[in-house]
């Protein structure tokens, strides 16, 4: 059956072509090769699982300190009351069934010189190649007064799990007529459109249950991802409920007072009944301590293999890296994990790694039945930098009917379900 190919079909075909181009020639890797993967999130799980599929002779050990993975994608549905914590929580049985050795422990240290990883109990693991996908850590102290204790009063919920449940409980307990403040950070940070999806879904909950309430977004930026789509949706769905204060208008939060439930900006003081501080972030502390960020907040990698720029034999994935034009997202991390798996298989076979193409498709829910999206295609240039392909991808049309927005919401759920099923079974 033939017919016109729309934007989603194009992306599906591009993804299939990208994977086909990544197939490694069917020769055996080093029989004794050992690959250790730290972190079983989107990047680490994808790398471990695909490496076992394409090179089953390689010993793959996956180190993860938690017994389950709670996804940041779709955690905003929990805050908006249209999802549950169980919906975003996944175990690792499928990974173990693939023949991956799963170790539930915290990785304490990395020694690039000896090619070893030390676990919290003192166990040492040796590796031929190491993959680290540590996610982000919060930069406590970057906002005056915001520390771990303050996060129990003004939750960030930017690491999904207990913080997500805490913020949801605060929203449920808030009286009608209350004010929710969301402080959005400056770039770069995990999930660029995330704060605005969060504001949208919280507003949806408030509109249905506490309609006298409002949401104020205090922003450290003057623009944000999918801004025109979000603001148009807010005017349509939640008129007068969401207020956005840009950096230029004094939106950057500089200090917090958890006891008084107030935040300070350069120009004003704001009081809130529920305050969600999304502070500046950096790569996970494990890679910072190992020197893999070269003294900065993020790690630099070669985009063709995701091998560290400062430590040969170590590959870094996901939110912890600066990946050129590619945003920090779960979808990006999973794509990077697959590319990394094929690169490692080639390197252990003494072959040249394939040159990858990657796609990031980012959906946001503005309401349960209202989705918007942005998609981009990426290639790696001669310097190893990841660059957006001009003219590829695109955003949802600004002028679209509600049936189209419903379709986008359905695609968002379908993408999430297919991706988590692929990684976690």
Quick recap:
With 425 residues, this protein is of the alpha/beta class. It has 10 helices and 25 strands. Helix content is 29%, strand content 25%.
Give the amount of beta strand, in percent: 25-35%
Question: In the CATH hierarchy, what is the class of the largest domain?
Answer: Alpha Beta
Helix amount, in percent? 25-40%
- Structural class label: alpha/beta
Strand order of the largest sheet: 5-2-1-9-20
Characterize the main sheet.
5 strands, parallel
**Average pLDDT reading:** 93
CATH superfamily of the largest domain: FAD/NAD(P)-binding domain
Number of domains: 2
Unreliable stretches: 1-28
Terminal CA distance reads 31 Å
Detailed description of the structure:
By secondary structure, the protein is α/β, with parallel strands linked by helices. The chain folds into two domains: 30-138 and 281-354, FAD/NAD(P)-binding domain, CATH 3.50.50; 150-277, 3-Layer(bba) Sandwich (FAD/NAD(P)-binding domain). Helix content is 29%, strand content 25%. It has ten helices and 25 strands. The chain has helices at residues 7-22, 42-54, 75-79, 93-97, 162-173, 194-209, 227-237, 285-289, 330-348, 402-424, and strands spanning 34-38, 59-64, 69-70, 89-90, 101-104, 107-111, 116-119, 124-126, 129-132, 136-138, 179-184, 214-219, 242-245, 253-257, 262-265, 269-271, 274-277, 281-283, 299-300, 314-316, 321-322, 357-367, 370-380, 386-388, 394-395. Strands 5-2-1-9-20 form a five-stranded parallel beta sheet, covered by helices on one side. Helix 2 links the parallel strand 1 (34-38) and strand 2 (59-64). Helix 2 (42-54) runs parallel beside helix 9 and helix 2 crosses helix 10 (402-424). The longest helix has 23 residues, at 402-424. The chain is globular and about 65 Å long. The two termini are 31 Å apart. The model is unreliable at 1-28 (pLDDT under 50).
């Amino acid at each position: 059956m033939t017919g016109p190919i729309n934007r989603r079909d194009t992306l599906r075909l591009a993804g299939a072509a990208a994977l086909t181009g990544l197939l490694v020639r069917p020769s055996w890797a080093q029989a004794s090769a050992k690959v250790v993967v730290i972190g079983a999130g989107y990047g680490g799980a994808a790398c471990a699982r695909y490496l076992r599929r394409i090179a089953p002779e390689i010993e793959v050990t996956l180190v993860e300190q938690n017994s389950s993975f709670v996804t940041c994608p779709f955690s905003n549905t929990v805050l908006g009351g249209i999802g549950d914590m169980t919906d975003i929580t996944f175990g690792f049985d499928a990974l173990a069934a693939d023949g991956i050795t799963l170790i539930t422990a915290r990785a304490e240290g990395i020694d690039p010189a000896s090619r070893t990883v030390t676990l919290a109990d003192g166990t040492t693991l040796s590796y031929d190649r190491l993959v680290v996908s540590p996610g982000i850590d919060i930069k406590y102290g970057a906002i005056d007064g915001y520390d771990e204790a303050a996060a129990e009063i003004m939750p960030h919920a930017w690491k999904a799990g207990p913080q997500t449940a805490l913020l949801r409980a605060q929203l449920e307990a808030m009286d009608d007529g209350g004010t929710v403040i969301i402080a959005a950070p400056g770039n770069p940070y995990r999930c660029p459109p995330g704060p605005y999806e969060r504001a949208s879904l919280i507003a949806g909950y408030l509109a249905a249950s506490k309609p006298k309430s409002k949401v104020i977004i205090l922003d450290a930026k003057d623009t944000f991802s999918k801004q025109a789509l979000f603001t148009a949706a807010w005017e349509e769905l939640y008129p007068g409920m969401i207020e956005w204060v840009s950096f230029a208008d004094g939106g950057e939060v500089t200090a917090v007072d958890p006891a008084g439930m107030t935040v300070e900006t350069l120009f004003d003081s704001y009081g809130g009944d529920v305050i969600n501080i999304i502070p500046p972030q950096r790569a996970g502390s494990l890679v910072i301590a190992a020197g893999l960020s070269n003294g900065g907040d993020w790690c630099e990698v070669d985009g063709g293999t995701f091998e560290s720029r400062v430590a040969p034999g170590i590959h870094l994935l996901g939110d912890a890296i600066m990946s050129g034009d590619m945003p920090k997202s779960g979808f990006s991390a999973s794509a990077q994990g697959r590319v990394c798996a094929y690169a490692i298989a080639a390197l252990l076979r003494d072959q040249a790694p394939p040159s990858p193409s990657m796609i990031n498709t980012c959906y946001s829910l503005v309401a349960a039945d209202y989705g918007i999206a942005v998609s981009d295609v990426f290639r790696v240039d001669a310097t190893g930098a990841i660059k957006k392909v001009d003219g590829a991808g695109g955003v949802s049309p600004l002028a679209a009917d509600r049936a189209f927005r419903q379709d986008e919401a359905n695609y968002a759920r379908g993408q999430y379900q297919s991706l988590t099923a692929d990684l976690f079974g």
